[in-house]
Backbone:
């Protein structure tokens, strides 16, 4: 289902299956879009939490950017804003654009002082590493290889999908997103989240 | 075994162990690669120090002050044998812990005296050993003292750990020194190649270290992984140290004599 189809489906439901312009205008497209985005993100995070140890389920949401230019050892991550998943999981894979099997290794933002003083630094003398900061990839040890462009796989945020693009959603989860949006838009009361058996006061 | 290729490599890069762990975990993101690689290096150095019988060899020339500098040999941990080559064999030299170590504070003339050169018989005599004085005359070795074998020159050494150099007390022919030493096994310039039998040990070590510092992992799981690592170490030790049947037979035949049967 494309993004537009999904939003219009909700719009139609909210206007009680009427396609009269006045009724539709009561539920603006942009407002629904933002609500869908929030629901979609909730769904994404739920998937992340539930998925297997190494989050290969996120592959579904991943987009490939084959040649991202590097300037002064920095490359702009080619998504509007990288979804904030723990341990920068939203950035799935970074490699040399000229040889995509030649990976650029992920390190934590401030780990170079430690790695530089360990034996591993000489063992990885020819390997390029990167850390993430401010929606940018910063390359470390790019002096020898001098990568000029990167091959990047990243989880795209909802806002990066055009209206005509298919929304990646696990089978069966469309209805979950759909229900969440309807609940929000129709001001329905959320389900009771209390898990004990005591009656509400 | 046929000579057909391909066969699996017997010598592999140290990163092989890391990739194997990634594969075990189904983790193909290489997020932990530098961390795992450091663990692999640590384990491999440990194996070389405590479990493996392999040594590295360096062929060196002693300088005019009787010094062999090992600081350029970045993988050097400790020496095993020091000697000189003679007819395809290594004639080992002995340690003398009384040899003075050179330090910058020593005046030049005293420092020069540490290494007395081949002609200084008196200093060597003071050491109290029953060998004849190494002696050259007109460029030829004079080794004919009655009752003493050999004819090659002897020298003693002491290793200076602070400066990572050997101090010898006399020069040797051609100044050739052969040093067998325990190596870290890790190349200081990267691209370390390791023996295949060490790979399972490194894999077990990385799996153990992955949980060792995680307080959420129960102690029994940590200990299980430590035992798995110990088992792999023992397997490697057996592989490297087990005698061949020929060695066993050699030992056996050495003790069989043709004597009267009783």
Residues:
């Amino acid at each position: 289902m494309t993004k537009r189809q999904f939003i219009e489906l909700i719009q139609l439901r909210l206007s009680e299956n009427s396609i009269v312009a006045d009724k539709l205008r009561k539920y603006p497209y942009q407002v629904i879009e933002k609500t869908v985005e929030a629901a979609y993100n909730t769904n994404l995070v739920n998937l992340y939490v539930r998925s297997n140890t190494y989050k290969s389920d996120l592959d579904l949401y991943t987009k490939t950017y084959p040649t991202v230019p590097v300037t002064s050892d920095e490359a702009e991550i080619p998504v509007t804003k990288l979804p904030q998943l723990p341990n920068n999981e939203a950035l799935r894979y970074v490699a040399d654009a000229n040889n995509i099997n030649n990976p650029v290794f992920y390190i934590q933002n401030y780990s170079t002082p430690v790695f530089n003083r360990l034996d591993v630094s000489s063992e990885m003398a020819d390997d390029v590493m990167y850390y993430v900061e401010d929606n940018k990839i910063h390359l470390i040890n790019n002096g020898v290889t001098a990568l000029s462009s990167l091959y990047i796989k990243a989880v795209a945020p909802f806002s990066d999908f055009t209206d005509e693009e298919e929304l990646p959603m696990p089978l069966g989860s469309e209805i979950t997103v759909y229900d969440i949006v309807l609940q929000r838009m129709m001001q329905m009361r959320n389900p009771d989240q209390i898990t004990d058996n005591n009656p509400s006061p | 075994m046929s000579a057909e290729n391909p066969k699996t490599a017997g010598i592999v890069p140290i990163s092989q162990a890391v990739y194997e762990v990634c594969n075990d975990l189904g983790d193909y993101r290489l997020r932990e690669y530098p961390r795992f690689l450091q663990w692999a290096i640590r384990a491999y150095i440990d194996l070389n120090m405590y479990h493996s019988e392999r040594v590295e060899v360096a062929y060196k020339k002693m300088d005019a002050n009787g010094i062999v500098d090992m600081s350029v040999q970045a993988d050097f941990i400790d020496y095993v044998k020091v000697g000189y080559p003679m007819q395809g064999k290594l004639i080992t030299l002995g340690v003398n812990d009384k040899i003075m170590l050179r330090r910058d504070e020593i005046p030049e003339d005293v420092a020069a005296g540490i290494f007395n050169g081949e002609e200084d018989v008196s200093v060597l005599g003071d050491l109290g050993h029953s060998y004849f004085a190494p002696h050259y005359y007109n460029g030829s070795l004079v080794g004919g003292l009655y009752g003493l074998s050999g004819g090659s020159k002897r020298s003693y050494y002491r290793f200076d750990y602070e400066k990572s150099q050997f101090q010898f007390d006399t020069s040797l022919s051609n100044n050739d020194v052969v040093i067998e030493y325990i190596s870290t096994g890790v190349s200081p310039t990267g691209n370390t190649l390791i023996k295949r039998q060490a790979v399972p040990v490194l894999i077990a070590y990385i799996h153990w270290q992955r949980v060792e510092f995680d307080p959420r992992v129960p102690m029994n799981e940590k200990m299980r992984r430590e035992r798995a690592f110990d088992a792999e170490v023992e397997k490697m030790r057996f592989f490297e140290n087990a005698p061949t049947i020929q060695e066993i037979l050699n030992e056996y035949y050495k003790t069989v004599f043709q004597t009267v049967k009783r």
Remarks:
- Residues 9-241 of chain B form one domain.
- Chain B touches chain A at residues 14-15, 25-31, 33-34, 37-38, 41-42, 45, 184, 186-192 (CB under 8 Å).
- DSSP finds seven helices and twelve strands in chain B.
